[in-house]
## 1
Amino acid sequence: MDEFEIIRNHLSKLSKKNESTLNLNDDVFFDKKNKLVVTTDTYLEGVHFINFNHPNLIIKKVIRSSISDLICKGVFPKFIFIAASGNKNSFSKNKIIKLTNSIKKEQKKYNFILSGGDTTYSTKISFTVTAIGISKKIVKRNNAKINDDIYITGNLGDSYVGLLTLKKKLKIPAKHKKYFIDKFFSPDLPFKFTKYLTKVANTSMDISDGLFGDLNKLINNQNLTYKINSDILPISKKLSEIIKINKVKSLDFVTKGDDYQILFSANKNKRKILKSISKRINLKITRIGNIVKGNNPLILSKDKKIVKSNIFDGYLHKF
């Protein structure tokens, strides 16, 4: 079984159809009456990060990945709780100082308060982060409308190339290695867009498990699908260079996840507004396709040909 089968077939029954749980089919818990928005994520050594050699960078990625679940709902993080498991080697005094300094910098950048947590002994390092925001409104999943435009903030693929760089599995010019590694550890969250999201988007989520896998989750309970132009998926100039050097297809990089950009749909009448917002906050916002009727996704090239490729359909935790 995978994580979503467990939720759908077993755990969803325990939510007792409470409206705030959103049927366990969203990134957050949303108690509208109390304006409470909550999300929880766990990160494990060897799965979410290779090792703990750079604790200051790992904790930065963990925090940003966690608060991204709020940001993609149009909610600012207010409080976070961190539970950590490790041992005397992983949590030496030197590493604790690095962790603390990094958390302090993230606090300053994203304006949240470290509000509690837990520590336990373990031979493997893990972190569980609970992030809380206060808001009277969120942008939910499964609220797309037929003919909605589909958008992505920022660029895709840089984080995945950063992972391949760390694993030494890709030819990367020395001058670009730091750039891609930084993108893996320090994803550029579209924080400035948060306050606009509830005003323009019908549905949204962050891109964590891969573009097409997350697109499927965005509309998984609706009788809808999507049509995407693969040639306009947003990538950085540096990634474009890497693609040429390694003679590979861009789709091999932009669908692997860990981007933590916002994937959202919006009515066509929001195009001018989104163009204006993009310019005002200096954030790339790319229209990549639209929501259509049916069950079969269409991924097209610029000449309208159907793209046939081993497209990564999203990362799944399987048990």
Note: The radius of gyration is 19 Å.
## 2
Amino acid sequence: MQQSLTTRLNNRSRYGLAAVCVLGLGMAASAQVSSYADKQVGENRGDELPKVLKAVGVAQHLNGQLPLNAAFVDETGTPVTLGTYFNGKKPALLSLVYFDCPMLCSEEMDGITSALEMVKMNPGKDFDVVIISIDPADTPAKAAAKKAFYLKRYGRPETAAGWHYLTGQAPAIDAVTNAVGFGYVRVPGPDGNLTQFAHASSLEIVTPQGKLAQYYLGVEYSPKDMMLGLHEASEYKIGNVVANILTYCYHYDPETNKHSIVVVRVVQMGGMVTVAGLGGFIFLMFRRDMRLGRDHDIKPMDDDTSGAQG
């Protein structure tokens, strides 16, 4: 009986400790997110998109043809056309970012690299990775720095020939973004100059002939879906439209000339759902433990009583 009571107390202590840990993690996560948001310029004003973001989004042009004659410069400073990477041999991952982006673009490239680490296919051999800057002011030197950083993080230096970081001028950039359906607008940076861009985050899979086969939205990508998408694109198969849930780079207010990250709200909401789910699970387990403990107490008493009467 004493052992049973000790066991129940230990179990309850364990659940209680777990509950404290969950609450502590929840408060810590909330504090981190709040601290992160506090560092941003400006503040969100309601859930309605500002007027400047009306032109920002991703229209999924499945089976649309990329402009293969669009002229760019690669990270080595060599002039190339987009058709260089879509010559009928292998599919490609296409991402539209800009290299001085202080927020979402790095998250997107982090997500691509993390997913590719778990994909059993090799850039350069099985597919290409084509990163195009939407900023005409970006340079091959910046492109080279980004490639070096993410290639090192990827950890397979032998795949360097499969990573392509391109810069170009407005006509070529516009031709690609229009074909992809990638809407973006210039917005002021902290200095008030139009040096930053409001845009959404998306990753496209393109067939070897340069046709848009699949869109992935957001900044985190499933390695399984990515590998399947590349395999199907290599066979010239076109995927389906995905749910258009966008992650915007900026929540911009032209009246106050301020902007902040919308993704912070997503992180906060995700943290709240996680904490609520774990808290509910722990509560149910705690109740079950108490019920089992009561049943265990009653049965020995019945046995002792019957034994005494006998």
Note: The CA atoms of residues 213 and 237 lie 7 Å apart.
